[in-house]
Amino acid sequence: MKNKQFTNKGIMIVKGILQEDETVHGKDFTLFYGDMRKAKETIRKKQAVILYEQVECVHSFFGLLDKLSQPARIEYGAVIREGVRLKEDAVILMGAIVNKDAMIGKRTMIDMNAVIGSGAQIGDDVHVGAGAVIAGMMEPACTTPVIIEDGVFIGANAVVAEGVRIGHHAIIGAGSVVLHDVEARAVMIKAPAEKIRERTVDDEQRLCINQTLRKKEVGDHFFDETMD
């Protein structure tokens, strides 16, 4: 990252027409986009009046992901950094944060206020509960990303430490702290997490995902089905 330029991205609308790079013009206003330091210097020299300002990031190594290009459902308020890969029908709920170079699998839901650290690799049909934290690779430095295999359920406010691998269809109980690898279909609770048993048929029924919630577009039938 030592050769990467810091970014100070945002948008700004000023009164009047200013012919500059990275601008869009309306009838009597100019919209600046891109580097806000450059825009501020131009506006200061022109003595223009700022009508609206929104800064995306300041002194950041990484920008934000282009959400509209993704095959996923992303709710308002989710923060997703550039380099993240979202697979088809993934769901990122409000307040969730997904850091650089993480991968979110098909139909996986990242619940409200969950944090997915840099480089984390999360499989298909996973549910990461509200407030859960999946460690990243940047700080503290770690050479191995967290890997969460298909079908895993992670309860609210659970923590998965850096470098941990969680086997397919494991269950991590709410508030648990996972410090070591977890075998497939294990049910883990406590801090630090301990295995208490294997995943059962009852667990499958209780934790089955709602496929309708994973769809990017739903019609009126969704409300009919969920409110019966």
Automatic annotation (TrEMBL):
Q: Which Gene3D superfamilies did the record assign?
A: Hexapeptide repeat proteins (2.160.10.10)
Database matches in InterPro entries:
Hexapep, Hexapep_transf_CS, Trans_hexapeptide_repeat, Trimer_LpxA-like_sf
Q: Which domain of life is it from?
A: Bacteria
Q: Does the keyword Ubl conjugation apply?
A: no
Q: Which SUPFAM superfamilies would you find in this protein's record?
A: Trimeric LpxA-like enzymes (SSF51161)
What Pfam families does the entry give? Answer: Hexapep (PF00132), Hexapep_2 (PF14602)
Sorted alphabetically, the keyword list is:
Amino-acid biosynthesis, Diaminopimelate biosynthesis, Lysine biosynthesis, Repeat, Transferase
Descriptive protein name: 2,3,4,5-tetrahydropyridine-2,6-dicarboxylate N-acetyltransferase
Source organism of the structure: Massilicoli timonensis
Lineage, highest ranks first: Bacteria, Bacillati, Bacillota, Erysipelotrichia, Erysipelotrichales
